[in-house]
Specification:
There is one protein chain. The protein is mainly alpha-helical. It folds into 2 domains: 196 residues, Serine Threonine Protein Phosphatase 5, Tetratricopeptide repeat, CATH 1.25.40; 216 residues, no CATH class. Helices cover 41% and strands 9% of the residues. It has 19 helices and 11 strands. The strands form 5 sheets. Strands 4-9-8 form a 3-stranded antiparallel β-sheet. It has a two-stranded antiparallel ribbon with strand order 1-2. A two-stranded antiparallel sheet has the order 3-5. A hairpin with a 5-residue loop joins strand 10 and strand 11.
Length: 488
């Protein structure tokens, strides 16, 4: 059996700045090992998931936040996105940090794939190959949806994509090309379709931290939803939940969750034992510590306009069961996250914060299938999925009172087309479920929803559907790899 050495080689365009000014390449030459067994390749693939998250900047860009003047945390990673400015800063929770970590994860996937090929690509390596292909697809998917225009079949063949990297780095500096969004999507689909059947859940010690078959199908659901291939959304959702047993895996907001304190909820929300969490990722982030105290955060008015209650009426006509707390009576939030703080040394007072993030959940699969049914005109199935969700999100649920119907959504949204009303209801349910999780921004992009932000002094800023600032600027370091900047 042949042997291959790896050094966690990484794209030069993803120069890391996690610790001082040293690049990621500078830090890793001594971590070499021989990738000569399936178990060693599996160990490498632990690093094939991005070690950063997008929540801080995607929440700030969305309509989930407002100017909570008086809150203490004023930082570029929160302020710049609120005004849709290119973020000044490259440290954790910034777009640059996310870009770097995604390409670091891609480098690990590619190194694993190269090792698998060198070792003969035998059946004993099928599961590792599947995980490597799907993780490579996932990181590219997230990058293209943040740093390129949202997929549109009418323009995808000309819209600038991001580099789709298919092999490990062999040189210090290498030029890359962005190609097109259509090309990136083609490569993502190729990797996903090839990799998914190879995955073996039994290969994982803790399944929630890896792409199991269910999690990979959940990824396929999201991919095809963004690609607007709605029948495949439904197909993959039904493979992920073959018995349509979403109820057994949904978060128990109307029972267990409702009884917990804020601390207990934050500890349990992202646990591997929570069946809703189809895939979790450990990310370097201050989000759990700071999101409640950012100046640009979620207000009383926003939280209750989405959840209902406090005199506000949502499409359900009832307050949703999410637990809400407030800080300074200004920032209102659901306590979903807890920080794992790691000191730089035993006696140090400084360190790094880590946050577990749900990358895919049962609820996302269900609501994505509901949206797909709406878009295909399958209204009965769409409302069945919507009401499965509603039944788990309203205290003292009464189907006769709380269930959504065509007439109810048309009345609430003041529209004459039940399909339009149902789509708005799906998007509102997604907004409620994923509050503080960063996914609202992607719905805003997909459906070209305008966003209005205000300041406490009355200034109004609006991001229109075709505003170029909806596409994040690629990092300045990427210029060294010959990449073209996004237009402004």
């Amino acid at each position: 059996m042949k042997k291959i050495k790896y050094t966690y080689m990484i794209l030069t365009i993803t120069i890391m700045t996690m610790a001082g000014c040293n690049s990621f390449l500078d830090q890793l030459p001594d971590q070499r090992t021989e990738l000569n067994t399936p178990s060693k390749i599996s160990e490498l693939l632990v690093t094939a998931y991005p070690g950063a998250n997008y929540i801080t900047f995607t929440e700030a860009m969305s309509d989930n936040v407002t100017d909570n003047f008086g809150m203490g945390n004023v930082e570029n990673i929160n302020t710049d996105p609120y005004f849709w400015r290119d973020v000044q800063g490259i440290n954790q929770d910034s777009p640059t940090f996310y870009w770097n970590n995604c390409y670091a994860a891609i480098a690990a996937s590619n190194q694993a794939l190269e090792a698998i090929q060198t070792l003969g690509d035998g059946p004993e390596l099928r599961s590792q190959k599947g995980e490597a292909l799907v993780t490579r697809a996932y990181s590219h998917f997230m990058l293209v949806n943040l740093f390129s225009k949202t997929y549109d079949p009418a323009t995808a063949s000309t819209d600038l994509g991001i580099p789709y990297v298919l092999e490990p780095e062999k040189v210090v500096w290498k030029n890359y090309e962005r190609r097109t969004v259509a090309y990136v999507y083609e490569q993502i689909e190729k990797d996903l379709v090839e990799g998914l059947p190879l995955i073996n859940d039994n290969n994982y010690e803790v399944q929630s931290y890896h792409f199991t078959r269910r999690a990979a199908h959940a990824f396929a659901v999201r991919f095809y939803l963004f690609k607007r291939d709605y029948q495949k959304v439904i197909n993959h959702a039904e493979i992920a939940f073959p018995s349509n047993n979403f109820l057994n895996s949904m978060r128990p907001w109307t029972s267990t969750y409702k009884e917990w304190t804020a601390e207990a909820l934050s500890l349990n929300y992202t646990k591997a034992t929570e069946s809703s969490n189809l895939l979790l990722a450990q990310t370097t982030s201050w989000w759990a510590r700071r999101y409640r105290g950012y100046r640009y955060s979620t207000s009383n008015d926003i939280i209750y306009s989405v959840f209902g209650g406090a005199g506000r009426v949502n499409v359900i006509g009832a307050q949703m069961a999410y637990n809400v707390w407030s800080q300074g009576n200004l920032s209102f939030y659901v306590r979903k996250f807890t920080e794992h703080f790691v000191r730089t040394s035993i006696n140090a007072t400084t360190g790094r914060g880590y946050v577990m993030i749900p990358l895919f959940t049962t609820e996302e699969v269900l609501l994505s299938r509901a949206e797909a049914h709406v878009m295909l005109g399958n209204m009965d199935q769409a409302f069945q999925d919507l009401n499965t969700f509603v039944g788990q999100r309203v205290m003292n649920y009464n189907p006769n009172t709380h269930n959504l119907t065509e007439q109810k959504v048309m009345n609430y949204y003041d529209v004459t087309d039940p399909q339009e009303g149902a789509l708005k209801a799906v998007l509102d349910m997604r907004r409620a479920e994923f509050m503080h999780e960063g996914l609202r921004w992607f719905d805003i992009l997909r459906h070209k929803i305008p966003v209005t932000h205000r300041t406490h002094t009355g200034e109004v800023y609006t991001l229109e559907p075709n505003d170029l600032r909806r596409v994040l600027q690629i990092p300045e370091d990427a210029l060294q790899a010959g990449l073209e900047l996004n237009p402004r």
